[in-house]
Amino acid sequence: MTNRKLPGISPRKENLRSMLPRFLIVCEGKQTEPNYFSRFRYFYRVHVDPRGIGKRALTVVDEALRLRKLEGYTRKDDEVWCVFDHDDLPSEYFNRAVRLAEEKGLHVAYSNEAFELWFLLHFAYLDTGITRGEYCAKLNGLLGCEYLKNDPDIFDQLFDKMPDAIERAGKLLCQHGDTPPADANPSTTVHLLVEALRRYAIQP
Prior knowledge:
Helix 4 links the parallel strand 3 and strand 4 (about 105-110).
């Protein structure tokens, strides 16, 4: 299938970029999440800095804290986000990572079970827990082609459906109420990060 490409906006020159709101996004995955979030810089007036570290949740939080201090993400309009999944993590480990990030003033975009839930919500509401493999199988059918975790075009394929995904993710999160993140399956807070980025839409 040939993906429809959006026209995009060229990234700002460095001197202008330094004045934009800055988002440091530290991701558990090395490719899927960084590839997706890196595309926001072409469509929104914001500096997006995704880092894929290939480590589990608590390590993502530790690295986000280290980078925030080391690289000076301390301006008023800076935001530092941690992106990680539940997958097969022990529940207490996962919940502890969420709590620690929030206690330290970081934002969290978690997914239970997997980041692919966010992609799936672009097409349909899902309130039944399934495995990562089942997410991928469903995406194969919905995309009309094989879903590849490191696909650099997934943002463009899903762009027009983003408002629907935000609405469904919000509804799903509300459905779980005060349930701890590890027990709220399926759920995601990725839409909170996406909404924060979309505040800086480039006007035509």
